[in-house]
Amino acid sequence: MRPIDLAREHGLSAQAIRNYDDAGILPPTERSESGYRRYTPLHAQALRAFLALRGGHGHQQATAIMRAIHRGDTESAYRLIDAAHVSQLAERDTRTEVAKALGALSTAPTPIPGPPLTVGELARHLDLHPATLRTWETEGILHPERDRTTGYRRYGPDCVRDAEIARQLRRGGYLLHQVAQFLDSLREAGGADALVVFLDSWQSRLTARSRNLLTGAAHLDTYLDLLDRSGPKAGQVT
């Protein structure tokens, strides 16, 4: 097969196929007497595997996986694949914890009118010790502003809201890093209502990536089976 024959299946250019070949994404290629590259069904499946892997792993990691296979280092290829699944599981757990934290909020915090509060004023409002608020700041839960003259902490409406949420979550048994994680997601989304939409979108992205990882694994498994049947050196760069 010619480069264009491989390219047509995926809507690619012949030059893209040559680039993938030069990058080590495809197995070694024989050339005709006139210098043209000759591709086989093995190359066609390698291309399918790479493009499928790219959907779940990204271009750089998919390239690294294929290169490892072609130099006979399947251990490194499997490690890259396993690492992607570990990362996916960690992100899925994070999303679950954020969703649980949102559900644990009993009521939406009520804004306090007026100027920013001092650490003592906020502590009295929440019935907490000022040292607790300072610890929350150290843990990344709160981000108070500082008075330019005195350097004292000043807690504006957003910071007060975060402190009230943190108090609710801590009473619900959430650890400090989990509270910080939830508030980071809340700020990124732009509020509790927006966070619900954000979580739905996040779940959709996780589902799509999981399917892409499965698809990539299936195509790669087919490619590895072809390599085994083609001989131990068929896909290796010498």
Please provide a written account of the structure.
With 238 residues, the chain is mainly α. It has two domains: 107 residues, Multidrug-efflux Transporter Regulator, Chain: A, Domain 2 (Orthogonal Bundle), CATH 1.10.1660.10; 106 residues, Multidrug-efflux Transporter Regulator, Chain: A, Domain 2, CATH 1.10.1660. 68% of the residues lie in helices and 3% in strands. It contains ten helices and four strands; from the N terminus they run H-H-E-E-H-H-H-H-H-E-E-H-H-H. The protein has a two-stranded antiparallel ribbon with strand order 1-2. Strands 3-4 form a two-stranded antiparallel sheet. A hairpin with a 6-residue loop joins strand 3 and strand 4. Helix 3 runs antiparallel to helix 4. The radius of gyration is 27 Å and the shape is elongated. The model has no long low-confidence stretch (mean pLDDT 89).
Major beta sheet, strand line-up: 1-2
User: What's the CATH architecture name of the largest domain?
Assistant: Orthogonal Bundle
**Approximate helicity band:** 55-70%
Largest β sheet strand count, sense and barrel closure = 2 strands, antiparallel
CATH topology call of the largest domain: Multidrug-efflux Transporter Regulator, Chain: A, Domain 2
Unreliable parts: none
Number of strands: 4
* Number of spatially distinct domains: 2
Mean pLDDT: 89
Which class of secondary structure composition applies to the elements? Answer: mainly alpha
| Annotation field: number of helices | 10
Please tell me how large the radius of gyration is.
27 Å
SSE series: HHEEHHHHHEEHHH
Percentage beta strand = under 5%
What quaternary form is this?
single chain
